[in-house]
């Protein structure tokens, strides 16, 4: 793939982000509009994009290892953050654990992979995100809640209840069942899902622009620089490691794209539930999303 094509399309993504942020600053969008766009993306365009791009999941050793690796990575990041922020208040430590772990595959990785890379690569990314759902939503959020309140415990029932309400996760399960039984969606259905799914990238980037929050106090700058800096350094090291591993090129592509330092968009919601009413989670999320887009473009130029 030509580097010029990657640069132009990546610049277009950033332009859409800037458009969303600019329109919010001018009053065209309200901060609350991101909630509506988030629902449209997570419940309509993202599932359609996934159905169109990944008609079958591949159940050989590599995607299963990717799913397991994501769970292990989340546990390692949570433990590292717990140690790093041990001198902070319980709420600050729990909020940092949520921000330090997890990968924003849906809003950052998928737009790039579906635009530039193969359906097989998309399939691998989906398996990684399944591990992300289990490792971050399951263990990570529960552990952070326990650190912040001293009363939170891992609940399999709560995790399953959350996942069963997640349309993207249900889409994953649907694709898995289709693969197990050797079924395929009719071309007519794929035409419909493809048309709707094509809007996903634009809506995601516009939503990221509306979500951008850059107001932060001087006291919080150190924590922002620490978390963003460490996540970026970890991403660079992990991507370098992946490139050295004896894996198929497509698997390396998927892993590298999934490992960009972007915090899951829903992290701010969980941080507020812990009692963190500061602007830190929103600022962290904003910076990491923009950084994730830039990082994805750079990684893509290396691995494409």
Describe the protein in words:
The structure is a single chain. The protein is mostly helical. The chain contains 14 helices and no strands. The chain has helices at 3-25, 33-53, 61-84, 90-100, 105-116, 119-149, 156-163, 167-180, 187-197, 200-211, 218-244, 249-258, 267-273, 280-303. The termini are close together.
Number of strands: 0
Distance between the first and last residues' Cα: 6 Å
The Rg value, from CA coordinates, equals: 19 Å
Shape: globular
Secondary-structure content class: mainly alpha
Summarize this structure as a short list of keywords or feature phrases:
globular, 14 helices, 304 residues, single chain
SSE order and pairing:
Elements: H1 3-25, H2 33-53, H3 61-84, H4 90-100, H5 105-116, H6 119-149, H7 156-163, H8 167-180, H9 187-197, H10 200-211, H11 218-244, H12 249-258, H13 267-273, H14 280-303
Helix pairs in contact: 1-10, 1-14, 2-8, 2-9, 2-10, 3-4, 3-6, 4-6, 4-13, 5-6, 5-10, 5-14, 6-12, 11-14, 12-14
Please outline what is shown here.
This protein is mostly helical and 304 residues long. It has helices spanning 3-25, 33-53, 61-84, 90-100, 105-116, 119-149, 156-163, 167-180, 187-197, 200-211, 218-244, 249-258, 267-273, 280-303.
């Amino acid at each position: 793939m030509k580097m010029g094509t990657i640069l132009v399309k990546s610049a277009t993504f950033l332009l859409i982000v800037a458009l969303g942020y600019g329109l919010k600053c001018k009053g065209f969008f309200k901060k609350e509009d991101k909630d509506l766009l988030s629902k449209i993306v997570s419940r309509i365009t993202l599932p359609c994009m996934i159905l169109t791009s990944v008609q079958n999941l591949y159940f050989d050793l590599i995607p299963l290892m990717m799913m397991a690796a994501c769970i292990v990575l989340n546990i390692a990041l949570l433990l590292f953050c717990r140690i790093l922020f041990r001198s902070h208040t319980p709420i600050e430590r729990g909020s940092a654990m949520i921000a330090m772990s997890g990968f924003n595959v849906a809003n950052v990785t998928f737009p790039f992979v579906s635009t530039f890379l193969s359906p097989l690569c998309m399939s691998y990314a989906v398996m990684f995100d399944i591990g992300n759902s289990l490792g971050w939503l399951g263990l990570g959020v529960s552990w952070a809640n326990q650190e912040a309140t001293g009363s939170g415990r891992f609940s399999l029932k709560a995790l399953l209840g959350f996942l069963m309400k997640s349309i993207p996760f249900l889409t994953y399960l649907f694709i898995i069942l289709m693969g197990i039984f050797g079924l395929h969606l009719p071309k007519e259905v794929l035409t419909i899902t493809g048309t709707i799914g094509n809007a996903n990238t634009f809506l995601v980037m516009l939503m990221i622009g509306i979500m951008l929050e850059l107001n932060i106090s001087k006291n919080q700058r150190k924590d922002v620089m620490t978390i963003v800096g460490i996540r970026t350094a970890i991403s660079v090291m992990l991507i370098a490691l992946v490139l050295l591993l004896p894996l198929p090129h497509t698997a390396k592509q998927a892993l590298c794209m999934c490992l960009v330092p972007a915090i899951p968009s829903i992290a701010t919601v969980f941080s507020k539930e812990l009692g963190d009413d500061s602007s830190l989670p929103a600022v962290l999320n904003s910076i990491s999303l923009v950084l994730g887009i830039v990082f994805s473009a750079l990684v893509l130029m290396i691995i494409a």
